[in-house]
Amino acid sequence: MSRLGDLIRTERIRQKMTPKQVARKCGVSESYIMAVEAGTRIIGDDQARRILKTIGLRQQNEAEFTLDDIAATVDLAQVQPALAAKAAAPKPRVKEAEKVASTEEDKEEGVAGSIWLDALQSVMKRVPVMNAVMKPVRYKLVPVENGRIEGANPDKVFYYLAPDDSMRGFRIHKGDIVLTVPANSPVDGAVMLINYNEHRYLRKIKILNDRQILLQSYDREYEQETADISEVGFLSRCVQVTFEL
């Protein structure tokens, strides 16, 4: 199978549709859909998007994750058995009013119930890139290994957008994004995201004793400041930096 064929087949199964039903909705033959799913007919991304949208995939979030993103990162062969089992599982009976409410919630969620999250949730995580006021400005796909990202709970991990060049001597420049994991106490030698004097900073930490640390920065020249540990709020530890050309 081709990757796009896998996507279409998996989304069709998730929607509990037959190839004939998909073909009828798309205005093509059943054999065409089956050939696409089998990978014997090669189609472009635009055609695949039209088919997926017709099946039920929402369009509004495609700017965040392209089909190429999914094809490059997800092994759908691992996902399909889980989806098939999910589809075969008996569903609890619900009242008609609850059905209507669920339908409205699905519309609001958009992509949340689609193949994107079904396929990605166990192998990839949509990690936010936070700005200086801790508001998400975009998202990046990050691999999840054994249910963790860099050893941390995937829901607690985020990228921080470096707001200035105060850490460029430590290879973090303005505009770089730094992957961080939770840490609420100082880590000697680590670059950490901290709250200090009512401001948020990236600083390299050196532990002096049980009560004091050095906050190290390096723009045009190296600088350090001694601070009481009790006066510093430790938010996270930086584990990776990414820059864009």
How many domains make up the coordinates? Answer: 2
What is the CATH first-level class name of the largest domain?
Mainly Alpha
What is the mean pLDDT? 78
- Describe the largest sheet: 9 strands, mixed
User: Would you list the SSEs in sequence order as H and E?
Assistant: HHHHHHHHEEEEEEEEE
Number of strands: 9
Helix content: 25-40%
Would you tell me which CATH topology of the largest domain applies?
434 Repressor (Amino-terminal Domain)
DSSP strand (E) fraction? 25-35%
Widest sheet: strand order? 2-1-3-4-9-5-6-7-8
Low-confidence stretches: 59-65, 71-80, 97-117
Tell me the overall shape: elongated
- The Cα radius of gyration reads 24 Å
- Tell me the structural class: alpha+beta
Please report the number of helical segments. 8
Q: Which architecture of the largest domain does the CATH hierarchy give at level 2?
A: Orthogonal Bundle
- The termini sit apart by 35 Å
Corresponding CATH superfamily of the largest domain? lambda repressor-like DNA-binding domains
